[in-house]
Specification:
With 452 residues, this protein is α/β, with parallel strands linked by helices. The protein has helices spanning 6-14, 20-27, 31-41, 53-63, 66-75, 102-113, 125-143, 164-168, 183-192, 211-217, 232-238, 274-280, 285-294, 317-321, 340-353, 372-378, 396-406, 426-436, and strands at residues 99-100, 114-115, 119-120, 149-152, 173-177, 198-202, 223-227, 244-248, 267-272, 302-307, 329-334, 359-363, 384-389, 413-418, 444-449. It has 18 helices and 15 strands. Helix 17 (396-406) links the parallel strand 13 and strand 14.
């Protein structure tokens, strides 16, 4: 192992990036291994199980430059940061971070300013927290080179800080929470970030200056997730490059015409919260069904549709028909929706058009239990199924019998969402588990009571 090439060693150690104890062991082998393992360990240390938050917080404070420590000590003397040693560490750990988490920075501020017994320690804590967050963000932005992922959830003018261009110019994934980010900051982001591939916009509850320009300027936008704001025109302009599209939670506020433009889509998620739609209005379910019936996503691999009302689209099975058999996962749930005819169409379509499907979540009616046999017989790569059962008339024991007799060997994980009382009898469950033992494969069996 002492003669293994550095490139090979990097590949091997990178496979251990989520194994904290193994990375520690690699660091202790020798200096050469240490130089390779440290950057991997510090890519995103807060995500590692077993990593000490307090040690991470202390390291970040330790790495603050003298100017920041003096500035914070002058404005927040209670922190006494000037007493912290300025000895240079062996590594510039901050430079190895591949993402800046607002949760990490918020947790650090909370740890410094909050006392379990007294609550927040200092008068004017909000202002002091703002100053501390500012200096920590400056530390990260001035040291991190070529971040790939960033979640912007602050009013700080981050994209004006020293080093921002180097830090953010290679961003691939950007999440922006517009509840916290001032509209003026979007203009600064436009100047640096023009090659975003995955964009998520949260809390778009009004027309926001520069937002359309920001989306439009992206050269290779492949994934777009939008909360609320109707941006049909700009989405249609970017539709040819989009591979992933998520719209939540106000589906009807967007024109369904966009569906016909998303020709290269691989991932589609439509989530509708009818409480807000009743307030704001929007396209009707008939409109959505019309465009769904003519839309075609031949590369579609993932489909999620969720409606929390008895008003729902009913032509979604037609998207599955035109997916060229590429779908791996379907998650279609509709609250208070009872239509055995629709459910039969959906089940038959899945059984005929989804030979590669591995994970399936659907509503199921008692009238459709027998139809499930078609899925079990034709979808032989299934690994997980989740059924939403919201009728008191369900004969759950019959469903268990069909699963035992017809489900493929690959299918070992089952979840049942029960809206009413339990649909299974004790005898039915005992018989099912006893007979499953003969199949030998391990079983994951979960009953979820009324998640809504």
């Amino acid at each position: 192992m002492s003669h293994i090439t550095e490139d090979c060693l990097k590949i091997i150690i990178n496979e251990l990036q989520y194994d904290l104890s193994s990375l520690y062991s690699c660091i202790l082998v020798n200096r050469h291994w240490c130089r390779i393992a440290i950057p991997i360990l510090w890519k995103n240390p807060s995500s590692l199980k077993g990593f000490s938050p307090s040690k991470l917080h202390n390291m970040i404070i330790f790495l603050l430059p003298k100017s920041s420590k003096k500035f914070l000590s002058d404005n927040i003397p209670e922190l006494s940061l000037t007493e912290i040693s300025d000895n240079k560490p062996l590594f510039n750990y901050i430079s190895f971070f591949t993402q800046i988490s607002p949760d990490l920075i918020n947790d650090l501020s909370y740890a410094l300013f909050y006392d379990d017994n007294k609550g927040y320690n200092y008068v004017g804590v909000r202002y002091k927290t703002y100053l501390l967050d500012q200096e920590i963000y400056k530390l990260f932005i001035n040291n991190c080179k070529g971040l790939k992922l960033f979640y912007c959830k602050t009013s700080h003018p981050l994209f004006k800080y020293q080093g921002a261009t180097t830090c953010f110019s290679q961003l691939c994934t950007l999440k922006i929470n517009l509840m916290f980010v001032p509209t003026g900051n979007l203009f600064d982001i436009i100047q640096i970030c023009q090659n975003i591939k995955h964009l998520e916009l949260k809390n778009c509850d009004k027309d926001i200056e520069n937002l359309v320009d920001f989306i439009n300027i992206q050269r290779n936008l492949q994934s777009l997730c939008i909360d609320f704001l109707p941006l049909s025109d700009i989405i249609m302009q970017k539709a040819s490059t989009l591979k992933k599209f998520i719209l939540r939670p106000f589906t009807r506020l967007l024109s369904p015409k966009i569906l016909t433009s998303l020709i290269n889509l691989q991932y589609l998620e439509l989530i509708s919260d009818e409480k807000f739609v009743l307030i704001f209005g929007g396209s009707t379910m008939k409109d959505w069904d019309e465009y769904i019936s003519i839309a075609s996503f031949p590369n579609l691999q993932y489909l999620k549709i969720y409606f929390d009302t008895d008003l729902s689209i009913t032509k979604d099975y037609m998207l599955i028909e035109k997916s060229n058999g590429n779908i791996f996962e379907i998650n279609i749930l509709k609250e208070n929706f009872h239509d055995p005819i629709y459910t039969k169409k959906l089940i038959i379509t899945i059984s005929k058009c989804c030979p590669k499907i591995k994970r399936l979540t659907i509503n199921i009616e008692p009238e459709n239990f027998e139809d499930l046999k078609e899925i079990f017989l034709n979808c032989t790569q299934l690994e997980m199924m989740c059924f939403s059962l919201d009728s008191e008339e369900h004969n759950g024991d019959k469903l268990l019998e069909i699963i035992l007799d017809y489900s493929p060997e690959t299918l070992r994980e089952y979840s049942f969402i029960e809206i009413e009382n339990s649909i299974f009898t004790t005898e039915g469950l005992e018989k099912f588990f006893e007979n499953w033992k003969k199949r030998k494969p391990p079983l994951i069996f979960d009953i979820i009571n009324n998640p809504w």
